Amino acid sequence: MLSVPRMRILLELRRHGTLAEVAYILNYTPSAISQQLSALEAETHVALTERVGRGLRLTRQGEILANHAEIVIAQLEQAEAELAASLGEVGGRMRIACFQSVLLTLVPETLTLLAQRFPELQIEVTQYDEPDAVGGLLSHEYDLILGEEYPGQPIRGSAGIEWDLLTLDPLRAALPMSGPWSDPRAVLAGLASAPWVLENESSAFGRWAIALMQEQGFTPHVPFVSTDILLHLHLVETGHAVALVPDLLWLSQTPRVRLVPLPGNPQRRLLTGVRDGSGGHPAIVALRQALRDVTDELHHRANSPAAPPV
């Protein structure tokens, strides 16, 4: 019988390409990972990897076994989920990872709702910058992650993950309330010379933002680069920059910037992701439902007649 932990090491090697990365993810030493791969090759009587430069890649036989490893591990995840569901209880520990706008807006009320519904369920939350969360989910560091997709920027590295749409989130330009960059008629091409605050182009948001502006005929001047959406807003509020922001931020606070629609009215897709096979776990079902309920309630409040216009 082949060793499932060793098959998982092979699968992680296919995802990451180096012993050092696999060792870091699985909390082993590189030499221990190498020994486990050698033992797996002894079990199968075939070479499963070959060296390419400083990394390793799977042989044809290694790819075959890794494909089966995905199926086996997903099946075990499903078995654990069904066992937990059979107990009829929601408890234990759930570790989630999310980006800043979700952490600011959705997570606090979700935690409150879950504490009311399932007091035995413990939630741990980590803020992340992409692509950390995908690797953390697949390596069992997290149980559920929040992901975001921008137009033309699908989530990367999502093999082995079940994604579920949480909501669609419109994106707008954020301008200062006064000053040279406050005219809403300037969006978007009229802001070609404005100072922008954006995320780095290595992020999905940064790539999308740059592509959007290039479609409008200009490459933005970006003196401020940060993943901190609160810093983006502060720079806009104080008149030092303009930005692109999601409507999600305004579901729980009043805008202090001028919000203007963008060409084509783009939206990002907010998703929840779990490992293949684990979606039926009662704690994950409860967590996803609470996120949906909170999102719907916040949208309802924001769209009520008493709510300030966005």
UniProtKB/TrEMBL annotation:
**Which keywords belong to this entry?**
DNA-binding, Transcription, Transcription regulation
GO cellular component term of the entry, any: protein-DNA complex
A Pfam family hit: LysR_substrate
Query: This protein is called what?
Result: DNA-binding transcriptional LysR family regulator
Q: Which organism is it from?
A: Rarobacter faecitabidus
- SUPFAM superfamilies to which the protein is assigned, alphabetical: Periplasmic binding protein-like II (SSF53850), Winged helix' DNA-binding domain (SSF46785)
Entry keyword Transcription = yes
User: What is the similarity comment for this entry?
Assistant: Belongs to the LysR transcriptional regulatory family.
* Residues annotated as domain HTH lysR-type: 2-59
Which InterPro entries did the record assign? LysR_HTH_N (IPR000847), LysR_subst-bd (IPR005119), WH-like_DNA-bd_sf (IPR036388), WH_DNA-bd_sf (IPR036390)
* Any one GO MF annotation of this record: DNA binding
Q: Which PANTHER family match?
A: LYSR SUBSTRATE-BINDING (PTHR30346:SF29), TRANSCRIPTIONAL DUAL REGULATOR HCAR-RELATED (PTHR30346)
